Amino acid sequence: MSTSQRDPITTHVLDQTTGLPAASVPVSLTLVSPAGAGSPFTAATSSDGRISKWTPQAGPSLNEIFSNLAEHADGEMIWSLKFDTLRYWGQGKTFYPEVEIRFFVEAQGGHYHVPVLLGPWSYTTYRGS
User: Fold this and answer.
1) What is the pTM (predicted TM-score) of this model?
2) Alpha carbon distance 83, 52 (integer Å)
3) Structure letter (DSSP) for residue 4
4) 76 near 104, Cβ under 8 Å?
5) Cβ–Cβ contacts within 10 Å for residue 3, how many?
6) How wide is the angle at C-alpha 36 spanned by C-alphas 31 and 42, nearest 5°?
């Protein structure tokens, strides 16, 4: 997917037990701060474990929010990614029913890629490129 077709926040989930992409993981993306951005964006990981486009539940698109960073205090935002790991692993097969990762988006915007290495008893994340 070309960079012009992807949203400014993307993610990639890999299953640590198989070493393969984690497909069909439900994920929500929410603007935490400043508050008042509206409903979360939603998506599920593709067959290659990636999310490059988000569906808004209501309100502006992710690209519209990013194009108006100057409207936010200091142009900085905090976002939350929530991974529905219970749905992925199944009842009684994971320690974490949900994994939430909060991160800063700086005033200059840009692209934020958040990979997750997901296991039933642990997870790891980092800022990707």
Assistant:
1) 0.90
2) 15
3) G
4) yes
5) 9
6) 40
Q: What DSSP state is assigned to residue 66?
A: H
Provide the H-helix boundaries in 49-104: 62-67, 85-89
End-to-end CA distance of the chain, in Å? 14
Taking only the tens of pLDDT, the chain with its 129 residues reads 444 588 999 999 999 999 999 999 999 999 988 775 567 999 999 999 999 999 988 888 888 888 877 666 676 789 999 999 999 999 999 999 999 999 998 877 789 999 999 999 999 999 998
Parallel, antiparallel, or unpaired: how do β-strands 55-56 and 123-125 relate? unpaired
- The CA-based angle 53-58-61, given to 5 degrees, is 40
- Residue 63 contacts by C-beta under 8 Å, 6 or more apart in sequence? 7, 8
Cβ atoms within 10 Å, residue 35: 7
Which alpha helices (H) appear in 73-129, and where do they start and end? Answer: 85-89
Please, are residues 54 and 46 in contact by the beta-carbon 8 Å criterion? no
Are 58 and 39 in contact by the 8 Å Cβ rule? The answer is yes
